[in-house]
């Protein structure tokens, strides 16, 4: 019999002793539970030759099974792990430093995994069951959680957790990591202060939410912000006057659903200076554009796409799904509402970069939205270990939409050394 099997058997035995104690005690505090676990472990492992370290691991494992998140707890606490992918109770994968690998952690059985899932969704007052088997939730630290249950998930309960750092990344940290250059960060800061409406696009895992959060912290402190998200993730620390809104799923009777569309409409009655929509995926794109077009300049949002032009096409499709409008009208709405498009990408070396910044300059004679690319990522080679060498550089195109910068009192020569501006400006 292997050492691991012996340890698992000892865990089961000790856990049962603690469980019987809990059944008799009623509702002890966490400190009382931990004290009892320590006592049980030290009393019942005298002949097992466990080291102090092994006993401590056993104590933590038993404690997590009762008051933590069971096998998930050590993965949550490991700050080097950025994503946890639970395919089934005995198969867990993690992402660390951009590398996906299988974790030795596993749940004792499917029931234990289901209990943890119910605990997590219960934190945010959501429901997941056989009749409603898909849910988005979050952990207490803001980490994003997606759950899919049988019969949709064929191998048993499935959960994916996108972890977020305790301290949200600011633009300075993104510059240090090479996501963009310091000059471009300064340029974007001035656009945020000048209330340019900005839309961030990118693929899954490209860092859209992180970048949106960093951009949002450039907003002046005297403004009022409303954030709207499916599952609240943004951590805007710079602005005190902030209202955070989150969608709600329907209950078991199919009632009580609160959608992003409803929240956007409600937010406009709450006197916001800016509205920040975490991500648009459907018909709410129309409401977002209307918010940008009705005096809420400086609003921000994100969406999934593979390029800036693809993001525009997706926005068109999303708007049309919410209202029967001619495509020409939709494109005029987009061109009128959004000032700047930012596109992020996760490159082949697994680093996340801003790869393009463009301004929208109107609609051409054919009815197409016109983009003026201001910055593009330029690759210059690779290091010996496969890291991409490159940076975001000006395209040389002249920035045309300068009115908001003027109205904000930002001198154009302050950005002239970063990006070309119109002649005589």
Q: What is the structure about, briefly put?
A:
The chain is an alpha/beta fold and 425 residues long. 36% of the residues lie in helices and 23% in strands.
Radius of gyration: 25 Å
- Would you tell me the structural class of the helices and strands? alpha/beta
Helix fraction?
25-40%
Strand order of the largest sheet: 9-8-10-11-7-12-13-14-15
Write the H/E string, N to C.
Answer: HHHHEEEHEEEHHEHEEHEHEHHEEEEHH
Termini separation comes to: 80 Å
Largest sheet: 9 strands, mixed
**Uncertain parts:** none
- Could you say which overall geometry the principal axes of the C-alpha atoms support? elongated
Strand content: 15-25%
Determine the number of helices (DSSP H or I, runs of at least 4 residues): 14
Note the topology.
Elements: H1 3-25, H2 30-44, H3 52-67, H4 73-77, E1 81-88, E2 91-96, E3 99-102, H5 110-123, E4 134-138, E5 144-148, E6 158-162, H6 171-176, H7 182-193, E7 198-202, H8 208-216, E8 225-229, E9 242-246, H9 260-267, E10 274-277, H10 284-292, E11 300-304, H11 308-322, H12 327-337, E12 340-346, E13 352-363, E14 369-382, E15 388-394, H13 403-407, H14 413-416
Parallel strand pairs: 7-11, 7-12, 8-9, 8-10, 10-11
Antiparallel strand pairs: 1-2, 1-6, 2-3, 4-5, 5-6, 12-13, 13-14, 14-15
Helix pairs in contact: 1-2, 1-3, 2-3, 9-10, 11-12
How would you describe the overall organization of this protein?
It is a single chain. With 425 residues, this protein is α/β, with parallel strands linked by helices. The chain is 36% helix and 23% strand. It has 14 helices and 15 strands. A 9-stranded mixed β-sheet has the order 9-8-10-11-7-12-13-14-15, with helices on both faces. A 6-stranded antiparallel β-sheet has the order 3-2-1-6-5-4, covered by helices on one side. The longest helix has 23 residues, at 3-25. It is elongated, with a radius of gyration of 25 Å. The protein starts with a helix and ends in a 9-residue tail after the last helix.
């Amino acid at each position: 019999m292997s050492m691991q099997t012996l340890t698992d058997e000892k865990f089961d035995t000790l856990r049962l002793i603690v469980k019987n104690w809990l059944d008799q005690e009623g509702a002890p505090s966490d400190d009382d539970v931990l004290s009892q676990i320590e006592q049980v472990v030290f009393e019942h492992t005298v002949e097992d030759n466990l080291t102090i370290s092994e006993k401590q691991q056993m104590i933590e494992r038993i404690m997590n099974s009762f008051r933590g998140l069971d096998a998930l707890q050590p993965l949550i606490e490991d700050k080097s792990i950025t994503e946890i992918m639970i395919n089934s109770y005995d198969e867990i994968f993690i992402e660390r430093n951009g590398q996906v690998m299988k974790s030795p952690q596993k749940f004792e059985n499917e029931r234990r995994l289901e209990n943890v899932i119910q605990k997590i969704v219960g934190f945010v007052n959501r429901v997941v069951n056989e009749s409603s088997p898909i849910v988005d939730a979050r952990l207490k630290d803001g980490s994003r959680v997606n759950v899919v249950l049988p019969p949709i998930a064929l191998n048993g309960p499935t959960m994916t957790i996108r972890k977020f750092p305790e301290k949200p990344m600011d633009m300075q940290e993104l510059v240090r990591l090479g996501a963009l250059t310091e000059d471009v960060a300064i340029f974007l800061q001035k656009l945020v202060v000048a209330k340019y409406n900005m839309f961030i696009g990118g693929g899954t895992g490209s860092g859209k939410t992180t970048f949106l959060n960093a951009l949002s912290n450039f907003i002046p402190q005297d403004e009022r912000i409303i954030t709207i998200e499916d599952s609240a993730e943004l951590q805007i620390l710079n602005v005190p006057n902030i209202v955070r809104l989150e969608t709600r799923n329907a209950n078991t009777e199919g009632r009580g659903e609160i959608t992003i569309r409803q929240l956007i409409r409600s937010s406009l009655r709450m006197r916001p200076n800016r509205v920040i929509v975490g991500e648009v995926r459907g018909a709410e794109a129309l409401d977002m554009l209307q918010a940008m077009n009705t005096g809420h300049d400086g609003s921000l949002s994100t969406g999934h796409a593979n390029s800036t032009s693809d993001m525009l096409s997706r926005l068109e499709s999303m708007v049309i799904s919410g209202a029967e409008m001619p495509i020409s009208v939709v494109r005029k709405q987009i061109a009128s509402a959004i000032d700047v498009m930012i596109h992020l990408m996760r490159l082949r070396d697994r680093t996340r970069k801003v790869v393009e910044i463009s301004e929208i300059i109107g609609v051409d004679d054919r009815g197409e939205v016109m983009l003026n690319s201001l910055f593009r990522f330029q690759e210059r080679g690779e290091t010996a270990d496969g890291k991409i060498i490159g940076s975001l550089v000006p395209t040389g195109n002249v920035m045309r939409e300068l009115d908001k910068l003027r109205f904000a009192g930002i001198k154009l020569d302050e950005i002239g050394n970063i990006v070309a501006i119109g002649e005589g400006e």
